[in-house]
Amino acid sequence: MVLSSYQLIKLSIVGINLVDVGMELILNRDEGKVTHINISKCQVTNSTLFLLSIKCPSLVEIRMNITVLDGQVNNGYINIPLTKNHRVQNLYLTYCKISDESAKQFGLIFPNLKVLELGYCYQITCTGIEAILKKCKFIKKLILRGTIEADNSERPEVNLEELILSNSLIDDEGLAAIQRNVLGWCLWH
């Protein structure tokens, strides 16, 4: 891959498995101006993904589609610096293999999220979603697609303007619990 001296604003990475070194090479080309990134059909580590928060301070949107976060952090160590990126506002994750632990890290690293989509991310549970919502107090639009089941755990208070819920296993009792415990939900799909 050869990158020229043009300023890169949108970056798409499709169909490759990135290790930390590969992502570092891509992002070391003065990519501080990247505002949007799309990672599709890739396998990345948590630490590779979180390099984005450090190397791309202008980043406002991350889209991941059919991507595996394998949970490896810094070659097996779980001591990555949790540098916050306050500019990231939109996080779209569809058909991604993401654990609740990864979701908790998203909430810590991207505290100013306004839009969160979790579509067909079958490994994430209500615990992971709640961890994000507890840390990201500015989420206005929450999109949940797929087979996410509601449980009886405590829901964090958020001020959603829009909730899109489709193809889920949440029953009437679960919807009632969501409605009781989350403030400001005004649009149901």
Q: What can you tell me about this protein's structure?
A:
This protein is of the alpha/beta class. Helices cover 25% and strands 21% of the residues. It is built from 5 helices and 9 strands. The protein has helices at 20-27, 46-55, 100-109, 126-135, 172-181, and strands at residues 10-14, 36-40, 43-44, 61-65, 68-69, 90-94, 115-119, 141-145, 162-166. The strands form 2 sheets. It has a 7-stranded parallel sheet with strand order 1-2-4-6-7-8-9, with no helix packed on it. Strands 3-5 form a two-stranded parallel ribbon. Strand 1 (10-14), helix 1 (20-27) and strand 2 form a beta-alpha-beta unit. The protein is globular and about 50 Å long.
Write the layout of secondary structure elements.
Elements: E1 10-14, H1 20-27, E2 36-40, E3 43-44, H2 46-55, E4 61-65, E5 68-69, E6 90-94, H3 100-109, E7 115-119, H4 126-135, E8 141-145, E9 162-166, H5 172-181
Parallel strand pairs: 1-2, 2-4, 3-5, 4-6, 6-7, 7-8, 8-9
Average pLDDT metric = 77
Task: Give, in spatial order, the strands making up the sheet with the most strands.
Answer: 1-2-4-6-7-8-9
Oligomer: single chain
DSSP helix count? 5
Record field, number of beta strands = 9
**How would you sum up the major sheet?**
7 strands, parallel
Give the overall silhouette: globular
N-to-C series of helices and strands? EHEEHEEEHEHEEH
Q: Kindly estimate the percentage of residues that lie in beta strands according to DSSP.
A: 15-25%
The termini sit apart by 43 Å
* Helix share, percent: 25-40%
